[in-house]
Amino acid sequence: MTLRSARIVKPSPNKGKHSRSAPCQLTVKGNVMKTTSQKIQAEPAKARHQTHVVHFQYADPHAESVCIAGTFNDWHPNATPMVPSSPGLWMKDLTLAPGTYEYCLIVDGHWKPDPRCEEKVENPFGGLNSVLRVPPSGRRG
After folding, report:
1. Contact 90, 84 (CB under 8 A)
2. Helix (H) or strand (E) run with residue 139 in it
3. Largest CB tally within 10 Å, which of 37, 88, 96, 109?
4. What DSSP state is assigned to residue 73?
5. In this predicted model, which residue has the larger pLDDT, 8 or 64?
């Protein structure tokens, strides 16, 4: 099983299509969030109104269902299902404001951190959450 890095997608002038940019910052840098109750780490007011499309891909030839749960959807396990795009490949685009998010994948009912995400934090249930940092516009992590 592999999860490819989440990527920020910039809107293209071509009829709403998207072009891919550099991967999101998924490495440990600076302070990390210590609690799952905080949705977004504080950003300047101007940055809160900006958004980015973040593209997730997960590969698992045996998975029957894959969802993403995190601080961006109040940890609801079925609120953000990934879509199968080909056998064993799951995708999802999320529109997120700049900030720091914690998340897990739910693969066939089992919660697990993103195996390719280098930055993880302990959660209150004895497991690990992956950390996703969405930069303000103009900065790519």
Report:
1. yes
2. none
3. 96
4. G
5. 64
User: What are the DSSP E strand ranges found in 2-88?
Assistant: 2-11, 18-23, 52-59, 66-70, 83-86
Alpha carbon distance 86, 24 (integer Å): 24
CB atoms within 10 A of CB 75: 17
- Strand bridging mode 128-134 / 120-122: antiparallel
Do residues 66 and 60 make contact, with C-beta atoms less than 8 angstroms apart? Answer: yes
Which tens digit of pLDDT belongs to each residue from 59-114? 999 999 999 999 999 999 999 999 999 999 999 999 999 999 999 999 999 999 98
- Structure tokens belonging to residue 55: 């593209």
* Rounded Cα gap, residues 67 and 107, in angstroms: 7
Question: pLDDT-derived band of residue 51, with 50, 70 and 90 as boundaries?
Answer: very high
Q: Which domains does the chain carry?
A: 2-134 (2.60.40.10)
Q: Please report, as a single letter, which amino acid is at residue 135.
A: P
Strands (E), the chain: 2-11, 18-23, 52-59, 66-70, 83-86, 89-96, 99-107, 110-112, 120-122, 128-134
